[in-house]
Structure formats: structure tokens, C-alpha cells
Amino acid sequence: MSLERKFFLGFIRIHILYHASKKEIYGVEMMDELKIHGYEVGPGTIYPILHSLEEDGFLTIREENVNGKIRKYYSITPNGIEILEKARLRIKELIDELMD
Ligand SMILES: [Zn+2]
Fold first, then answer.
1. What's the 37 CA to ligand 1 centre distance in angstroms?
2. Mean pLDDT across 47-60
3. C-alpha separations of 56 from 67, 71, 83 in Å
4. CB-based burial, 81-96: b 16+ in 10 Å, e otherwise
5. What is the CATH number of domain 3-98?
6. Domain boundary assignment for the chain
7. Ligand 1 center to residue 77 CA distance, Å?
8. What average pLDDT does the chain have?
9. What is the pLDDT of residues 22-42, one digit of tens each?
10. How far does residue 40's CA lie from ligand 1's centre (Å)?
11. What is the DSSP letter of 28?
């Protein structure tokens, strides 16, 4: 993982949780979304992040057969919503400090 990607890992995790709070997400879709935000994230990065968010109880997985391939859909859990709300407050605090 590049130093820059490693540095911004927390931002990437917050993006993922935010989008999962709006609707179910899946890996490829999230990689495209993150690209829009300027993060070049490949499968070797996104899937371990999704997996660890699931392991930590912030996301749940649902599997669906899409044209013969199993696709994993992720949605946010109550713990995920809680941590996202905490992140929101801290980001606001950080912005106030950085942008004044
Ligand atoms: Zn986004």
C-alpha cells in the first residue's frame, strides 16, 4: 500500500461507511466512487477494508448471485451508524481548526 493511501486510510473507511449508510454497496462500485474523490483504490485495498469493517461490526454482508457470480453487498450496522456520527463530529472539529 502506498504511503499516501496508508495515510488516508481513515478517510477511505469513512467514505465507505457514509455510502453504506445511504444504501447497500459492493466493492467495484465503491472503487469507482472513491476514484471520483481522488482515491486510486484497487481490489487489493478495498476488499480487506470492507472485510475489516465487517469484522469490526460496522458493516454486514449479504451475498447475491449476479449472473452466476456471487456478489457481496455491504450495509451499515447500528455500530457503524454510531461511529460514523462520531466521525462526523470529529471531522467538523478538524475542519474548524484546519480552515479557520
Ligand atoms: Zn463518496
1. 6
2. 97
3. 30, 20, 11
4. eebbeebeeeeeeeee
5. 1.10.10.10
6. 3-98
7. 18
8. 94
9. 999 999 999 999 999 999 899
10. 13
11. H
Is the alpha carbon torsion for 82, 85, 41, 62 positive or negative? positive
Q: What is the pLDDT of residue 1?
A: 67
Segment 51-78 mean pLDDT: 96
Cell digits for 66? 449476479
| Helix runs in 1-100, H state only | 3-7, 9-22, 27-36, 43-55, 78-98
Are 15 and 25 in contact, with CB atoms under 8 Å apart? no
Q: 47 C-alpha vs ligand 1 centroid, how far in Å?
A: 17
Could you tell me the pTM of the whole model? 0.90
